[in-house]
Amino acid sequence: xxxxxxxxxxxxxxxxxxxxxxxxxxxxxxxxxxxxxxxxxxxxxxxxxxxxxxxxxxxxxxxxxxxxxxxxxxxxxxxxxxxxxxxxxxxxxxxxxxxxxxxxxxxxxxxxxxxxxxxxxxxxxxxxxxxxxxxxxxxxxxxxxxxxxxxxxxxxxxxxxxxxxxxxxxxxxxxxxxxxxxxxxxxxxxxxxxxxxxxxxxxxxxxxxxxxxxxxxxxxxxxxxxxxxxxxxxxxxxxxxxxxxxxxxxxxxxxxxxxxxxxxxxxxxxxxxxxxxxxxxxxxxxxxxxxxxxxxxxxxxxxxxxxxxxxxxxxxxxxxxxxxxxxxxxxxxxxxxxxxxxxxxxxxxxxxxxxxxxxxx
Amino acid sequence: xxxxxxxxxxxxxxxxxxxxxxxxxxxxxxxxxxxxxxxxxxxxxxxxxxxxxxxxxxxxxxxxxxxxxxxxxxxxxxxxxxxxxxxxxxxxxxxxxxxxxxxxxxxxxxxxxxxxxxxxxxxxxxxxxxxxxxxxxxxxxxxxxxxxxxxxxxxxxxxxxxxxxxxxxxxxxxxxxxxxxxxxxxxxxxxxxxxxxxxxxxxxxxxxxxxxxxxxxxxxxxxxxxxxxxxxxxxxxxxxxxxxxxxxxxxxxxxxxxxxxxxxxxxxxxxxxxxxxxxxxxxxxxxxxxxxxxxxxxxxxxxxx
Lengths: 361, 305
Description:
Chain A has helices spanning 2-12, 14-32, 37-49, 52-77, 85-102, 108-137, 141-160, 167-172, 199-216, 218-228, 230-235, 240-267, 283-293, 298-322, 327-360. With 361 residues, chain A is an all-alpha fold.
């Protein structure tokens, strides 16, 4: 039995190895630019953890990644690849903003609850479209979710270019594509006098809920089962289509909630720079990295999101200090994904070898 | 009216180029059983390397070669992860996409920094043919990459359907066990198709940055690579049908650009959305046609021992 424990530890070290390998390549790239990697990483660490504010910013950055990551955990565990985090974040953020702008006179906490609920629902619907198309029309969900990302982003850009643009921007003639600041009554409470907000607590609570749901409920068990073996699930009478759509809806709900919280907790408005990731800052993709890095486990996704949040926050500092563009982190995130999925095979092979040895005994 | 239609048709032919290179490359890879979803990332890297080379040397051929080499390197990476390491291809492709997107932005920010233009491949009139009224103007006054893309379609069809290599590729994708027992080296074939697909994705990117648009910016492709993957499904893994899909999309694009240039009062965000909506609609409509993908698509080959 002891042997097995060692094996499990060595398996959980794989993402760490992937991370270190990606970091090594990052170091080479920084050195290639003529910058000193030591100073660069020092700046990165300082930017991520150097002060109370830096730590708070890291946690704030990690929060949407955790929401997306949790959504990804549910979808990937069901064997459906939801790459639509970007679009679902936008759907959640946009709908929450519109609700808050239209009912400014409701009491703050009621409006917060309504806005978060609407954000959650809209994320669920946006993902549900892809789930429905996958389950009943056999449309490749990776492609449909990517397309839905673009549709959501352009829809948001359209709304921000006129219909919900800040009236002040129109009056001043500056036409910056953003909404008015939401009423202060809907600002999520701050935890300590930094940018840290209550949304982080909600995210952690949901991480635990997702864990309980996936591993302690029948529905969660079925969702994981269709991800493990779709034929066996069908044979045992599980309505595979239904659970596929459900996995998508739950996945999108979490991401949509994350989007709404991003508005109410951090930005207090929606804005765009015209590009498709202008508002989300690619959190919809980085959340996938967090989930894979956390081994598709809701609790594991918490430290994984924090790590990525730290990288992203620190990268801004690094960019200022040693002029290494923060896009480097984007490239490293891609490498982490490639390394983690690439190492799955080594892991499976190791498992097989150990099992074979145990059989021989 | 005639001039408008000729104009749109001409630009539709031109705009089909990046789709064609990318989706023909993806078709070949998928026929051998490898799903590569990182096309967009490879296109971005191809676009950047071609653009940068031309910016520094002014040599278009060198720029194209740079895109091909970078595409091949990415193809090698994708093949290694998907074929040798047997990774889940859907996720690894997203990794390649994020990597290519991040790396091309990173390199652009460090090595170029600002928006610059290059002079790309000039239009090349085909003697005699370009003088045919209307047809000549639409088809035979394009740049060389456009001709290359359209020549690629029958060439690929021929290789896939009329040569032993094509037979091996399809066998590896349909029934790897049978192909293996006949002595076809599955790993070799899959590396070959994926690296070739990477090269074509590189050219697809180059066709944007040094022929169609002559600029590079972050996320230049804007998801074109994903549409190219969708076109493979649309074309049911047949080069000629992929061509018709590419033309459908490029026509949608051409109309969208025309609407914008004309200043017709449709919000540009709606017209920009159009290709993505069409993609989803087309994929949904495809499901009714009951065409099956290569049987071994997205399934790593494990020899029974």
